[in-house]
Amino acid sequence: MRRVFRAIVAVGALAVPAAAQAQRTGGTHEVGVDVALAWVKPSGVDAMLSLSTPVDVRIGLASRGPLSLEPRVSVFLVVDGGTRYDIDPGLNALYRMGGTSVNHNTYVTFGADIDLRKAGTSGAVFALNGGYGMRRPWGAGALRTEFFLRYAFEDTAIGAPNTLSLGVRAGLSLWH
Predict the structure, then answer these.
(1) List of residues 6+ apart from 35 with CB closer than 8 A
(2) How far is CA 139 from the centre of its chain?
(3) Is-contact 49 38, C-beta < 8 A?
(4) Does the chain have fewer CB atoms within 10 Å around its N or its C terminus?
(5) Whole domain around residue 36: which residue ranges?
(6) Mapped to the 3 state alphabet, what secondary structure does 116-155 carry?
(7) Rounded mean pLDDT of the chain?
(8) How many angstroms separate the CA atoms of 127 and 154, rounded?
(9) What is the C-alpha to C-alpha distance for residues 97 and 118, in angstroms, rounded to an integer?
(10) In this structure, what CATH number is given to the domain that contains residue 60?
(11) Contact indicator for 73, 85 with CB cutoff of 8 Å
């Protein structure tokens, strides 16, 4: 649990400068929903293909500079012999690598999240993620495609193995 707390503090420390930059430059807000297709490999178990919808709801705190923040929340209902739900809040930083505007660019992203699980045994699983994506204008919003890698750490208290996920997410972003 100490590792999870330290990781949250570290992500928060990384987020403060970007949040200040977004407020100073009068940044815009991006709201989006994604679906994902991923190859998921828990340790000790065969790999599986997973389709998630929605994989996340995100609120981007864009800035005029290349760095922006993106809080994300995912809610999953999992039925696998029993029923459980997972709530997965997280925070990502996006670094815009190319493009002329917030809705037409390429970017890299990195972040952390905590998978809060509720079933017979409740608990939290800490995960790190990263990806490469692109936004392309579509009406008043943007279509967004992102290739991602996610590693969730093991938590023996709730029986969660370490898990590697590789996949692609696609979604729609609207700007406010």
Answers:
(1) 51, 52, 53, 54, 55, 169, 170, 171
(2) 24
(3) yes
(4) C
(5) 2-175
(6) EEECCCCEEEEEEEEEEEEEEEECCEEEEEEEEEEEECCE
(7) 79
(8) 9
(9) 38
(10) 2.40.160.20
(11) no
